[in-house]
Structures are given as C-alpha cells and as structure tokens.
Specification:
Radius of gyration: 18 Å
Low-confidence stretches: 233-243, 245-255
Number of helices: 9
Strand order of the largest sheet: 1-3-2
Distance between the termini: 12 Å
Helix content: 25-40%
Largest sheet: 3 strands, mixed
Mean pLDDT: 84
C-alpha cells in the first residue's frame, strides 16, 4: 500500500516524493522467513533484540541498515523511522513509541494515524521504554540515533476489536490501506498549517494532563488497551470533546 501510494500519480504522492527521501528495506529477516520463521533468523536470533550491537557477520541486515541510518543522519535530518511488524497476540493496528520526559510530541504521529484509519487504535499504543526492549530498533533509533519519531507499527495477525472492523480478520486490502494512511499521516504531520496536528495535540493534552507518560501502559500488558480506554473515558467525560480515537472528517485530497 505504501509503495503503491508513493509511486502513484496522485498530487499527494508527488508532494511526498518532492519533499522527502524514503529509505525502504522490504525485509530484514529473509533467511528466517524463507524457512518458516516470523521472528527469528536462520541462526535462531531474534533480530529485533540486537540493534544495540549488531554483528556484521551474524546479523548483516541489521548491521547494514543501522549503518545506512547513521550515514543518512550525517547528510540530513531523519523525520520518521517505522519498523513494521505483525503481532501474534493483540488485536488492531497500533504503535510502540518512546517517551522519557513530559513531551507529547512522540505521540503526535500515532494520533494522526488514528484520525485517518478505521483499524488503528491509539488505546493500544504504548510509549514506555522497558528494560528488555532497550535493544529493539525503535528504542535504539530513538536513544542512540536521536530520531524522535521512532516507532514500531504492529498489525494484528487476527483483526480488530472495535469499530466497523470489529471481530473481523484483516485482509491484504486492509493492510495496504494502512500503508496509504501512513503516507496521509506524513502529509498531515508536515502540513505548514498544522491544523490536524493542533487538533491531535489538544486531545493528547486532555489524555495526559500531568505529563506525557501519565498512566501509560506496558507494551506487554494484555489488558493495556482496557486501561487506556478507562483513562480516555475519564479524560473526556466532562468536556464532551472529541478524542484522538474519533475519526476525523474526510479530507479533500485526491488519490
């Protein structure tokens, strides 16, 4: 979906191509996948726990992808890094991000995605950095490479548990649409008018009144989504304002 969008003839695609350099690595675990693994390499290594010190010989895809990112940072700012995964336990599409202070800026991009997509659930997102996740791609990109907007995008192996897609399996069409929504969110994120960013920021300030990490749930907590929904209900019950989860009005963009 993302590749079709970026290589397509639409005005939005041309705007993205004219203003950004996209570095896309289609597969980081080819030797593992070809023998039926979806997590470990052929050597039995979980490649998403080795980004802090990858081996050139044993983990070449991680080693050279990280090297490419370092070289790119010497030449230009990296606005966004997304590591795309499938999730075997949780439902919906959601993101894991990083937030170690009181800033809400690390939550803006997932908030924009939520406004654009019917199957992306902000309630299932997590922004805490747990000890055993410190060597994952998104944390190393955030801490070591200083890429603020560094995320893991997780798409359930199953489907959604809310909205029009509730209790249905995701198909390839839904996943391709999610790729298109990422491109739309990049446009919203970098829109000079910042209109949608301002709306999301307002909603985030309601959800996190004390600081950017208030009541954030664990990314390994199966009940995390329920805790986040309870937090959202408490935050929005008084004012009746729209939350990040509510879908935005359709845009006038031509695809």
């Amino acid at each position: 979906g993302m590749l079709d969008y970026l290589t397509g003839p639409s005005l939005d695609a041309r705007i993205l191509r004219d203003n950004f350099v996209f570095k896309i690595v289609p597969m980081l675990n080819p030797d593992g996948v070809i023998v039926g693994n979806y997590r470990c390499s052929l050597a039995g290594q979980d490649l998403n726990r080795l980004w802090d010190e990858p081996s050139r010989k044993v983990h070449p895809t991680i080693f050279f992808t990280k090297s490419m990112m370092r070289h790119l940072l010497c030449d230009r700012e990296v606005l966004l890094y997304i590591d795309i995964h499938g999730h075997s336990r949780k439902k919906n599409v959601f993101m894991y991000g990083n937030s170690e202070g009181s800033s809400l800026r690390e939550k803006l991009f997932p908030g924009l995605l939520c406004r654009n997509s019917d199957c992306f659930c902000f309630d299932d997102c997590c922004f805490k950095i747990q000890k055993y996740k410190e060597s994952t791609a998104r944390v190393v990109a955030y801490r070591e490479l200083s890429i603020v907007n560094s995320f893991t995008l997780e798409a359930s192996f199953c489907g959604a548990d809310f909205g029009p897609m509730a209790n249905q399996h995701f198909t390839s069409r839904h996943l391709e649409e999610m790729g298109c929504m990422i491109c739309d969110a990049i446009l919203d994120f970098c829109d000079p008018e910042q209109s949608k960013v301002s709306l999301v920021l307002r909603d985030l300030q309601l959800l996190y009144p004390d600081d950017g990490n208030s009541d954030d749930v664990s990314d390994s907590d199966e009940d995390g989504g329920n805790l986040a929904r309870a937090r959202r209900k408490k935050a929005t019950s008084g004012g009746g304002k729209k939350s990040v989860k509510e879908k935005a009005a359709p845009t006038n963009r031509k695809k």
